[in-house]
Design a protein that fits this description.
This protein is α+β, with helices and mostly antiparallel strands. The protein contains 5 helices and 5 strands; from the N terminus they run E-H-H-E-E-E-H-E-H-H. It binds coenzyme A (COA). The site of coenzyme A has 20 residues, from helix 1, strand 4, helix 3 and helix 4.
């Protein structure tokens, strides 16, 4: 198996949309909040391709034996002005198709993103991880990430009723 990491091209749109669909539905199986609209993956595909050529974004894809097996998107961000150290790199997304997992592709995508962040002076990288996703929790911890914020949710009214129906 040969993995190549490269910058995304416009022609990757539909492969990335399909991978996003798989990734989002994977989350949706664990938490109904991540329920995709019918065209949600197409919307993401368009937005991902719009990141090509943006100075603050690095959209990447992984090719395995010529097939797009995964994608990742890194974005240069700033915390609000009250922070002394404002710059950080955000892992906006990373996904590897189920049949390509556990072969180092996710790690290779992150390594390339991380190099790009470093070349832009970034010394802090953040990733938002759904607590219901045991796979990404294992992945990010293996790469040395540690938790620093906890997002809590209170479901009220119709949201609480929907949650009760889901569980
Ligand atoms: C998370 C994801 C990108 C990892 O991609 P991958 O190509 O399988 O990752 P790698 O093969 O590079 O894994 C590197 C290490 O991460 C850890 N890891 C990966 N998958 C794991 C899992 N399911 N459980 C626990 N640890 C895991 C392992 O330590 C692994 O090294 P090892 O295989 O030598 O043990 C992929 O599983 C994925 O797309 N998942 C669904 C979508 C998702 O959760 N995306 C992240 C959103 S934040």
């Amino acid at each position: 198996m040969r993995v190549t990491i490269r910058k995304a091209r416009r022609s990757d749109r539909s492969a990335v949309a399909a991978l996003f669909k798989e990734m989002f539905d994977f989350h949706g199986q664990r938490d109904a909040h991540f329920t995709r609209t019918e065209s949600g993956h197409e919307v993401f595909g368009d937005w991902f391709i719009d990141q090509i050529g943006q100075e603050s974004s690095m959209p990447l894809v992984a090719e395995v034996d010529g097939e797009v097996a995964g994608y990742a998107l890194g974005i240069l961000r700033k915390h609000p002005q009250v922070f002394l150290h404002r710059d950080y790199g955000e892992v906006n997304d990373i996904a590897v198709g189920a049949k390509f997992r556990r072969q180092g592709t996710g790690q290779a995508l992150f390594a390339r993103m991380s190099e790009w962040f470093t070349s832009h002076g970034i010394t802090r990288i953040e990733a938002r991880v759904a607590t219901s996703n045991e796979v990404s929790s294992g992945f990010w911890r293996r790469l040395g990430f540690t938790p620093y914020l906890e997002t809590l949710v209170l479901k009220t009214g119709a949201g609480a009723a929907r949650h009760a129906k889901d569980t």
